[in-house]
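Run log, item B.
One chain of 340 residues. Sequence copied directly from the ordering sheet:
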Amino acid sequence: MKIAGTDLGDRPLLLAPMEDVTDPSFRYMCKLFGADMVYTEFISSDGLIRDAAKSLAKLAISDGERPVGIQLYGHLVEPMVEAARVAESACPDVIDINFGCPVKKIANRGAGSGMMKDVPLMVEMTRRIVQAVKTPVTVKTRLGWDEDHKNIHEIALRLQDVGIAALTIHGRTRSQMYKGEADWTLIGEVRNDPAITIPIIGNGDIDSPAKADEAFRRWGVDGVMIGRATYGRPWIFKEIKHYLATGELLPQPTVTERVAIAKQHLLKSVEVKGEKVGVLEMRRHLSNYFKGLPDFRQTRLQLVTLTDIPELLATLDRVGEKWGDYDASQTVPAPLSKDI
């Protein structure tokens, strides 16, 4: 699969852009385990053009995580065009437009999936951004606003016409939020329409190698994007790639191996963001590596409250010492009902 000039190989796996999750250290870990493309957290167009520090910080990307996309959201054309120009200065491989976020405070302003209520504006905004930058522009969106307005097929054709390089479709409507199961039938219909010539990437409920395999075989998508199933499990990319190549399931990492992964992740976070911020922002990740371990409550509390790096590393070592013989296969997350 190619997005403009970027070749992602056969049946690529992409890390979904997720607020407060896909920071540089997490993207780094997912790349280590085989993610073919990663995305920044989504960035407010208003924040970028106001030079807001938090938004500008999200533009930080490194050569080691390429290919990488910067995702933008907003509800007004001119700020989005200007934000795309700012994002382009960070030299991403693609600029992705978020037309899929269902969160009320974003959608109700007309941004994210709120743009699906005004398809002409969505198309015009996309057209203007494509014209304004040389970087390939892609879009991530949903099936439609609600059950009565699943207009993704029309949207896909119109966005293709204004020059996007690829389209990612999450298999839910905005009104569904994250409820129920993702519906891949319409994703498959879009992909299998001969008039669609751009890559179609499927997203929604991919939390196992078998589901990823089904997405490629049954629905014919060009790529698969994975979101929430990566929480505490960046090795899911390695699991899926192995299954696609061999038809065999890899054993889950042992607790000792997870400790090593968590320590590497922690040290990368500190390297990128400094000791204070690096430790604070790792709290959302650390305990996720050990979900399912018995009698873990007190240790989890330590992992999300300690601020001293040597203490954190020592606590992680104690996890390996205490639970090293535990059957780590029991800690695989339950099947997800929602994805981003």
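Observations after the first pass:
- Confidence is low (pLDDT under 50) at residues 334-340.
- The longest strand covers residues 68-73.
Flagged for discussion on Thursday.
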